[in-house]
Amino acid sequence: MPRSQQKGSNALAKSAGGITKKKKRKAVTNGTVYASYLQEVAKMVPPEEVGLSGKASRALSGLIANLEESLTNDAKRMSTLQKSKTIKPSAVQVALATRLPRGLTEGAGKDASNAVDKYTKSQGKAKKNGISGK
């Protein structure tokens, strides 16, 4: 059987005019975007003896990626409704409130505020010391 007729191959395929073209591949994400972070978090959480399998890591990574995508879309939608070209913290907070339970939303908001404050302070110290972040 010729290579262009093999099932699932990305070989050259003949079009109706007899011209050969290479089939385009679709970009596929393997769901391991957050896997390395999940491994680190799993080491920090007691009991330390319990690990995280690759399959569980991929499942959690996919869950986090889906949540991130839905939160981003909600925040974009809120920014559009507010007629703003940028996503503001208020839009992110509304997106969090619509997707997560109240307790998680409050905790996430506090952690995010602390992280932003810490980052801002570190940037201020770096500028005073003449250190550039770029």
Descriptors:
134 residues, 2 strands, 4 helices, mainly alpha
Radius of gyration (CA) equals 23 Å
Strand order of the largest sheet: 1-2
The main β sheet shows up as: 2 strands, antiparallel
- Percent range for β-strand residues: under 5%
- Amount of helix: 55-70%
- Average of pLDDT: 77
How many extended strands? 2
CATH superfamily: Histone, subunit A
**Number of domain modules:** 1
SSE order: EEHHHH
CATH first level: Mainly Alpha
- Helix count? 4
Q: What is the 3D shape?
A: extended
Distance between the first and last residues' Cα: 55 Å
Low-confidence stretches: 9-13
Specify the structural class. mainly alpha
How are the secondary structure elements laid out?
Blueprint: E1 12-14, E2 20-22, H1 35-44, H2 54-81, H3 89-99, H4 102-128
Antiparallel strand pairs: 1-2
